Amino acid sequence: MLKAGVLGAGHLGKIHLKLLQQSEEYELIGFYDANDENAEKVSKEFGYKKYSNLDELIEAADVIDVVTPTLSHFEVAKKVITKGKHLFIEKPITSTFEEAEELIALAEKHEVKGQVGHVERFNPAFRAVVSRIENPMFIEAHRLAEFNPRGTDVPVVLDLMIHDIDAILSVVKSDVKSINASGVSVISETPDIANARIEFENGCVANLTASRISLKNMRKSRFFQRDAYISVDFLEKKCEVVKMKDAPKEPDDFAMILQNAEGVKKQIYFDNPDVTLNNAILDELETFAQAINNDTTPIVTLEQGAKALQVANQVIANFSN
């Protein structure tokens, strides 16, 4: 079993601690949190070993799970990698793309593996349909959340939209051509609601909306491609696949038939896959352990995390244009 240490024992850090302790892939050795009062409280309440020094935690572990505010990601990740330890790091990978590039180069130099916590890749609804998303040409994503002060230290693009950016980049096999975006600050110092239109070199267009001041929660994406429409509800963990094929000459009475202006008839049918429910955070942590043990490529690489950050920062840069 891989010895895992957690850096950061806030809201998400406590979830990671609990899951790592449950996991059969890891041995949880303990955690470090810079806030002594919080560290003491978490240690007493849950019984996790508290390290008083970050270097001691890194030294004792095989894998460090970084669940700290984004501003600290680069420095601590750099320390983890240069000590030759594998790195799981929450999204966004770093504050800047240049920092992410440096981490990638260091990981290659020190021959360690890294994975970024883009957890929606492990959402059961997305996993159920991702193999059916083939060359989408129009994508629409809505990620709306009720207001929560936690996370408002960064723009909504880095807080919420980056999930959809990463998912979209994983299925669109083309480079980004152009980005148009707008963002509005309503209650925070940084934008609370944002919209981005991302156009890819192959002609695909993705329209993304993210808000953290919504009256209701929503996390839905829709993928349109030749002869198919695919819908993913990340919140409800449901998906829908609607396909079209040439209509038979003699369709049955219940067949749904469409006819275009040229007289071509298409039959609509549903091809919904089964959704196998899972714990997405546990899955992302355990597949990372398997990538280390089997010397395979992690599902969400540092490079992919860096690319999602780069596009997210380009969206933010477009707010003032």
Automatic annotation (TrEMBL):
InterPro entries per the UniProt record, alphabetical = Gfo/Idh/MocA-like_OxRdtase_N (IPR000683), Gfo/Idh/MocA_Oxidoreductases (IPR051450), GFO_IDH_MocA-like_dom (IPR055170), NAD(P)-bd_dom_sf (IPR036291)
Give the matching Gene3D superfamilies. Answer: Dihydrodipicolinate Reductase, domain 2, NAD(P)-binding Rossmann-like Domain
Enumerate the spans annotated as GFO/IDH/MocA-like oxidoreductase domain: 155-216
Secretion signal span:
none
Which stretches make up the Gfo/Idh/MocA-like oxidoreductase N-terminal domain? Answer: 3-118
Q: Which Pfam families match?
A: GFO_IDH_MocA, GFO_IDH_MocA_C3
- Highest taxon in the source lineage: Bacteria
Check the record and name the SUPFAM superfamilies matching this protein: Glyceraldehyde-3-phosphate dehydrogenase-like, C-terminal domain (SSF55347), NAD(P)-binding Rossmann-fold domains (SSF51735)
Q: What is this protein called?
A: Gfo/Idh/MocA family protein
- Source organism of the structure: Salegentibacter chungangensis
Q: What is the lineage of its organism?
A: Bacteria, Pseudomonadati, Bacteroidota, Flavobacteriia, Flavobacteriales
